[in-house]
């Protein structure tokens, strides 16, 4: 069609910065994640253990409260193992939370062939993935290291003696262990969700990819009588890493076949690199039309 009136001109207004464009993806990602009541229910469930641990801290440090509930009631000592148990509880609940929200972030874009439209805007593939990771990082932080560090602050406030100065390593251990788990979960869940168009299947695949190799690794250790099968056992590797970060004394069973920390770190890095490669192969600004 011929153009007779050449009155058009290029856009002369202000341009958005790169981070503002990523912020648009983050905003719509949050809107998609929290658009269902199931997300709010799961989030509330994830915070229940933290409330129970907080009540335990209150009972431990308040003699009047212990008298009211019963002087013979046995309470957990507030030490490294207490924070290890609380960190494990929050992190494994975060896995269930991730299995629900992660497919909602990326499966719809792939199922509806929306990626070519999104990436036709001034948004790169890296910025697209970064926006999705930012949503997961914020949501998982709210159910992992934030409530556990709040327990640390509450224990510091409730303790009748100076407690924080001698247990500051717990705060750094909790933060480091939770951040490692969040990075692993975010990359792992997005990579799996990018290759599955159906949300329900992606949710089940996230659970299966964590726990099925764990069982296979346990069987391999028992048959071959080795410890290296635990390198595909994500629950065992993360529990061992959290234990060492929090300087928890291992039990007799945990001392039988320990995994070296460098082997655990290298395995997690290899898995994360593989997930990044899978995302790079899947997130493409093209649409394949079959006919």
Overview of the molecule:
The protein is mostly helical. The protein has one domain. It contains 11 helices and no strands. The longest helix has 32 residues.
Short descriptors:
single chain, 291 residues, mainly alpha, 11 helices, 70% helix
Gyration radius, to the nearest Å?
24 Å
Task: Kindly give the count of domains.
Answer: 1
Into which percentage range does the β-strand content fall? under 5%
Count of alpha and pi helical runs: 11
The secondary-structure element order is: HHHHHHHHHHH
Number of strand elements: 0
Indicate the overall shape. globular
Beginning-to-end CA distance, first to last residue: 29 Å
Helix/sheet category: mainly alpha
Low-pLDDT runs: none
Question: Kindly state the mean pLDDT as a whole number?
Answer: 86
The helix content is: 55-70%
Largest sheet: none
Which helices and strands appear, and what pairs or packs with what?
Layout: H1 18-33, H2 37-61, H3 63-69, H4 80-111, H5 115-119, H6 125-141, H7 145-158, H8 168-194, H9 199-224, H10 234-245, H11 261-282
Short structural summary:
The chain is mostly helical and 291 residues long. Helix content is 70%, strand content 0%.
